[in-house]
Amino acid sequence: MKILVGIKRVVDYNVRVRVLADGSGVDTDGVKMSVNPFDEIALEEALRIRDAGNAEEVIVVSAGGDECQQQLRTGLAMGADRAIQIQTSEGLQPLSTARAFLKVIEREDPGLVLLGKQAIDDDNCQTGQMLAALWERPQATSASKLELNGNSATVVREVDAGLETIEIDLPAVVTVDLRLNEPRFVKLPDIMKAKRKPMDVVSLEELGVAIEGNLEIGHYAPPPQREQGIMVEDAAQLVEELKNRGLL
Amino acid sequence: MTAREIMEYDVIIVGAGPAGLSCAIRLKQLKPDLMVAVIEKGAQIGAHILSGAVIEPEPLDQLLPGWRENPPPVCIPVAKDELWLLTKKGKIRLPTPPQQKNHGNFIVSLGSMCAWMAQKAEALEVDIFPGYAAAEIRFNDDGAVGGVIIGDMGVDSAGKHKDNYMQGIEIHAAMTVLCEGCRGHLSKQLIRKFELDKDCDPQTYGIGMKELWRVQPGKSKPGLVQHTTGWPLDAKTYGGSFIYHLDKDRIAIGFVTGLDYQDPAFRPFEAFQQMKHHPMLHELLEGGEILSSGARAIVEGGYQSLPKTEMPGALLIGDAAGMLNVPKIKGTHQAMRCGMMAAEHINDTASAEGFDAKLRDSEIVRELYKVRNIRPAFYSGLWRGFVRSAIETVTLGKLPTTLSIHDDDSTLKKRDDYTAPDRKWVDRDLPPRDRLASVYFAATEHDEDQPVHLRILEPDICTTRCAEEYDNPCTRFCPANVYEMVADDRVKKDGGRRLQINASNCVHCKVCDIKDPYQIINWVTPEGGCGPNYQNM
Ligand SMILES: Cc1cc2nc3c(=O)[nH]c(=O)nc-3n(C[C@H](O)[C@H](O)[C@H](O)COP(=O)(O)OP(=O)(O)OC[C@H]3O[C@@H](n4cnc5c(N)ncnc54)[C@H](O)[C@@H]3O)c2cc1C
Ligand code: SF4
């Protein structure tokens, strides 16, 4: 079985994200970029499945400009066998990404597709679900535990009410949550090995996927600054202040 | 304990600053089949680099001819120099001393320039490994340096292995080049072990703090280079500020002060913030926003404090040795020149021997010699310093005397022996509010569950002697508020207080390792990839 893992290049989670002055986007000048942390967890899971003998090959896929090869190389250094870059200079919306991934699935015929539950840049949380629908295969989202049993898988999902355990047939799309595992560190010699692992580059056009902008982005704005609070002396003053503001 | 995995190289370079990268590039230009690796503790190249920076371009011309057609991302020709003497509210324009003239120089972001240089090095097949700290030196059986040991990853705060534990590997190399920058922690050990400093004066340092701002449109004048001296420092404390005007409404503003200050209650961070509230700067910054901020120690001893730069199997270059030219406040060109020289020496001789003699007979050390008396001239205060440095400058440093350099840890006065001058500091309204707010702009990150990388060798001293004699100056000189004395019910003695170390805030400036009066703080490398994530600094 092959496992396909999606990897997205995003602004690192430690970076303080700043909106460009003209509201056209987010400032990425000199900003640290990383693999989306959920995707790293997806890859770690795929590697563990392979290393336990339950898969033959782990393929990392990313859609983006040539910069995203850096994140694919990180994936290869973690242990993926090969990488595919879906080349596009435009930022894709989830539906286009899902369509592009579907084309790769058709070429590679994986038994399992592992994705992060969402990317920490735009937090859409849609690609996995859309991909499963397009592929007409089962999906399990926000997985915190994954067990393969031949042609099916048992997945524990993190849901609002707690945990939900479901059984799905394979092939399927599973999107992963934070608690699934702790990703490994990359070993130095593996960075060198990763340089020699295959990286295929296909363009969106070659895959026959047209970019659809079904959402139009008006502008970006930072969240409003929180106003300075006041300290109240006692409950009476609190009630008074709330009343003055028409909140009570 | 299993044997560590080993990687072999011809040359291993520790630190991807201008020194290390220049050395790597030159080595591969001279001998393409040499195996060269560079280890960098920052998560990305440039993430731990904090500099001004106005740079002299000659070394770039030598290293990468044609760079002017394809310059680093932030690179603005200097258009004008200004030097101001500040009083609390006023300012006096001073003539720019010759060493500070910047005609023909460029304002860059040294961090992004290093990232740019790293690409050039990778194109020459240098293996560059950001995110890995060289934690220890590996010695050969004969005692010579034989490479480095990379720090383990995935160790918890109690020293136990976590699920994702990864043992650091050993990198073996015929030649190790230490380019850790100011107060390198491996360099410090090697200087001690091989007694490299036995024939020179002690080293002296400064603390540099910097913020990158986006100001209101029209306020930044790209290419303008401003320096100030005077307020808010008293005449006994060495220091001043730099204000470099970049493109895209950006301004790099920084403040440098000598770590040989005497006042145990002095707060360098507060002095920097005060400086920003001088009317001239307040006007400039008002309405703007901070993009990135941080701090880094600066090596200031120069000629008199230059240790021996070679030892069996290794060379010590750039700020790790202390090649910065203090009156110019420039070390980048020196680091680059020295990087190239080290590469040429390694290529010619395949050994460390003879490098130090070559260095001392080079333009690098001649430049330091000319200005050797300027920094110590300021030991007797700002005014005498001005006079003496003017004399040294017009005589090109040819006067026969050489003033000696003192260390920084012993200059601090005990609180009972020092009356602080009335600093007349003002109320502040520009960000950041305090050190924690500032650290936020450094985007610094350390996994909290790892051993504390600030090792206190004798913790008892903190709550006893240091508390009494100096009132714990670490709580004030650290620009990131890492050290706090906190009340703790469980502590029954010493007033119920203990030292709390907020190690995850550390920005790797190394000031605590330098200024602590008892020399009991030892800065060691945390897990690779931890630390600040500077943006265009
Ligand atoms: C506030 C300030 C302003 C300055 N302004 C100017 C200026 O205007 N012009 C100018 O020319 N110079 C300026 N300098 C000086 C200049 O920045 C330095 O001289 C120069 O950066 C020295 O280069 P380097 O390569 O020796 O060290 P650094 O640039 O310090 O690089 C050292 C690198 O090694 C890494 N490292 C250290 N230890 C380890 C380890 N054990 N394992 C792995 N990696 C490690 C560090 O993370 C860092 O990336 C300024 C410095 C400061 C602090
Ligand atoms: S703990 Fe030391 S090295 Fe870290 S920021 Fe504070 S003074 Fe600098």
3D architecture notes:
The complex is a heterodimer of chains A (248) and B (537). By secondary structure, chain A is an alpha/beta fold. In chain A, helix 2 (69-78) packs across helix 5 (188-195) and helix 3 (94-108) crosses helix 4 (127-135). Chain A has helices at residues 37-51, 69-78, 94-108, 127-135, 188-195, 204-207, 235-244; strands at residues 2-6, 9-11, 33-35, 57-64, 82-87, 112-116, 139-149, 152-159, 162-169, 172-176, 199-203. Chain A has seven helices and eleven strands. By secondary structure, chain B is α+β, with helices and mostly antiparallel strands. Among the domains of chain B are: 6-69 and 112-200 and 302-370, FAD/NAD(P)-binding domain (3-Layer(bba) Sandwich), CATH 3.50.50.60; 433-523, Alpha-Beta Plaits. Chain B has helices at residues 18-30, 58-63, 110-123, 185-193, 268-276, 279-285, 332-349, 355-360, 363-370, 374-377, 382-394, 435-442, 459-470, 474-477, 511-515; strands at 6-14, 36-40, 54-55, 75-77, 80-86, 91-94, 106-108, 127-130, 134-139, 145-150, 153-155, 161-166, 170-178, 205-214, 224-230, 239-245, 250-258, 289-299, 310-311, 314-316, 454-456, 483-487, 497-501, 521-523. In chain B, the strands form six sheets. In chain B, strands 1, 2, 8, 9, 10, 13, 19 and 20 form an eight-stranded mixed β-sheet that branches. A seven-stranded mixed β-sheet of chain B has the order 6-5-15-16-17-14-18. In chain B, a hairpin with a 4-residue loop joins strand 5 and strand 6. The chains are: A alpha/beta (248), B alpha+beta (537). Chain A binds chain B through residues 12, 14-16, 18, 21, 29-32, 182-189, 191-192, and chain B through 5, 7, 43-44, 46-47, 73, 109, 111-112, 127, 129, 131-132, 150, 153-154, 162-164, 166, 169, 171, 214, 289, 291, 440-441, 443-445, 533, 535-536. The site of iron/sulfur cluster has 13 residues of chain B, from helix 15. Iron/sulfur cluster (SF4) is lined by residues 454, 478-480, 482, 506-512, 523 of chain B.
